[in-house]
Design a protein that fits this description.
Structural class: mainly beta
CATH topology of one domain: Pectate Lyase C-like
Number of strands: 45
Radius of gyration: 25 Å
CATH superfamily of one domain: Single-stranded right-handed beta-helix, Pectin lyase-like
Helix content: under 10%
Largest sheet: 11 strands, parallel
């Protein structure tokens, strides 16, 4: 798949190549292979929304509606800039103010399972809208530009994104462009992990400031994260690039392949890794006489292969007894950075015992420390072909980031028009016409709450004559069941003693209660998305935003 020629006009300009050697809009005769490689190919592979409907979105509401659907496969084509459109001002610290820098409120979208999110041409842009992948799987994100530049923040223990929901400011989570996590419960279980994720040909950046904590990571991952590949991305102009492993207590699985990524002017964390069995090959990390390369930390056993490090203070450095296998990397030191003020500064590197540097290397590079050689070998897990280290700089600078891949194959499925469910209506699911009852919008929290489901509860399709006959779903006057949702609670009136249940859109049982006389309330604590409300033989669909 995607073995076609690729547009490289923007990449040529970024790499400062002579545009005369290849006219804009032309294609290279032989482009690299951009197929999925590495850990994301394991565990049955990563297919994203393959087979699902193709939805082209251009507004935040449209994007949120389909991206946060809990399970339904979608191929989401982002065409244009997605931001909240809710204007505000921030002061020099990023706090909301009555004057100062004009910006928009931020948001965090909780991505559901089985999703492909892909940008159209160079138009796909999530501006001050972060993605949170929380205990989710089978997700592909390609050809999207991300920034949290000028996002409003609230200083608690750490900086947090400030959003505007339901007429009020809401403090959400960290200002990451993408955050992958599995924060609760028993992380040894499959449903307490995030896995089979591919992030490819994206661009990540922020406004560079002296405040290293103004923005968080460009791409962070913590707790049980595996079968993930991060490839051909362009990370630039930021302090803390990627944190993989939240701290020394985060001793869970972190298995990620990083290949052909371009890190430019990132101060640190390219990436920083704790308790990792990750493979880093053919990446190009470029500083301007400062900044650090990847950091091997506690519990890690990593494999560095044929990467190119240039103009850094440190490249591949270690601490906390982490180990790594370091083979065939190239260190440019400051030899090509004299005008940036490097002078005679040498790059410090950690190497395996017995490593011999060439005379060319030693002019600009010095040992920081020797690091014990690890035992992790990626070739035992998957097949890959690394490019020659001498080709890495030219390949990565020309082919990383947005506007490179051809997404036409993603657009070949069944195309549907995005329809944003109104927060003031609830759809009655029936083969016959029926009026809709009203509801208010549900505002979910910025992180998922656990669901009080039971493995012994039947699915919607298993409940016999009470639910499995679609033509019989609505057999009584809908006016006898009135309900509304607000906050994290659903309040309804139904015949006393009647069982009322909440299901996912795939029919999985989530919640239930028994109707009392008058009104009954049920606490939801559900993530954003679409759900089914069943009372008697009536089923309604509603949306949590």
């Amino acid at each position: 798949m995607f073995s076609k020629n690729y547009k490289i006009c923007n990449a040529l300009k970024r790499a400062s190549l002579t545009v005369g050697t290849l006219a804009c809009g032309a294609s290279l005769a032989a482009s690299p292979n951009f197929d999925m490689v590495g850990f994301a190919t394991l565990g049955g592979g990563t297919t994203g929304g393959a087979g699902g409907a193709v939805v082209e979105v251009s507004t935040f509401a449209e994007f949120k509606q389909v991206a946060e659907d809990p399970e339904t496969p979608y191929v989401i084509v982002v065409n244009g800039e997605i931001n909240t459109g809710i204007k505000t001002y921030i002061d020099s610290d990023g706090a909301v103010a009555t004057s100062g820098t004009e910006t928009t409120y931020g948001e965090i979208v909780l991505v559901g399972n089985n999703k492909t999110i892909v940008g159209k041409g160079t138009n796909g842009f999530l501006n001050r809208v972060g993605l949170n992948i929380q205990k989710k799987h089978n997700i592909i994100i390609r050809n999207i530009k991300f920034t949290m530049s000028d996002v409003p923040i609230s200083k608690t223990d750490e900086n947090k994104v400030v959003a505007f929901r339901n007429g009020a400011e809401v403090v959400l989570n960290d200002p990451d462009c993408i955050s992958i996590q599995a924060d609760s419960g028993d992380v040894d279980k499959a449903d307490q992990a995030s896995y089979n994720i591919w992030i490819d040909h994206c661009e990540f950046y922020n406004n560079y400031t002296d405040n290293k904590d103004r923005y968080d990571g460009l791409l962070d991952a913590k707790n049980n994260i595996y079968n993930t590949t991060v490839s051909w991305n362009y990370f630039h102009d930021h302090h803390k690039g990627s944190l993989i492993g939240n701290g020394n207590s985060d001793n869970y699985r972190h298995e990620i392949t990083f290949h052909h990524n371009y890190y430019k002017d990132i101060d640190a964390r390219t990436p920083m890794m704790r308790y990792n069995n990750s493979h880093l090959y053919n990446n190009y990390v470029e500083g301007a006489g400062s900044g650090n390369g990847p950091n091997v930390r506690k519990g890690s056993d990593l494999y560095f292969e044929k990467n190119h490090y240039a103009g850094l203070s440190k490249a591949i450095f270690a601490g906390d007894d982490g180990v790594a296998t370091i083979v065939d990397n190239y260190y440019e030191g400051c030899a090509n950075m004299m005008e940036s003020g490097c002078n005679s500064k040498k790059m410090k590197i950690s190497v395996n015992p017995g490593t011999e540097l060439t005379a060319n290397d030693t002019v600009w590079v010095t040992y920081d420390a020797e690091i014990a050689k690890g035992t992790f070998d990626p070739s035992k897990y998957y097949t890959y072909t690394a490019d020659a280290v001498g080709d890495v700089k030219s390949l990565v600078t020309a082919y990383s980031g947005v506007g490179i891949i051809d997404i036409s194959d993603y657009e070949n499925g069944t195309v549907i028009t995005p329809v944003v469910s109104s927060s003031s209506t609830v759809e009655v699911l029936s083969s016959s016409s029926a009026e809709s009852s009203s509801s208010d919008e549900v505002q979910s929290s910025s992180s998922e709450e656990s669901l009080s489901s039971s493995s012994e509860e039947p699915t919607l399709a298993e409940q016999g004559d009470d639910s499995n006959d679609e033509t019989a779903l609505v057999k009584r006057d809908v006016s006898k069941v009135n309900f509304y949702v607000a906050g994290n609670r659903i309040t309804f009136s139904a015949p006393a003693g009647e069982r009322v249940q909440i299901f996912s859109m795939t029919g999985k049982f989530l919640k239930q209660t028994t109707a009392q006389a008058g009104e009954t309330s049920l606490q939801l604590n559900l993530p954003q998305g679409q759900y089914l409300f069943k009372s008697g033989k009536s089923v309604y669909r509603f949306t949590i935003r």
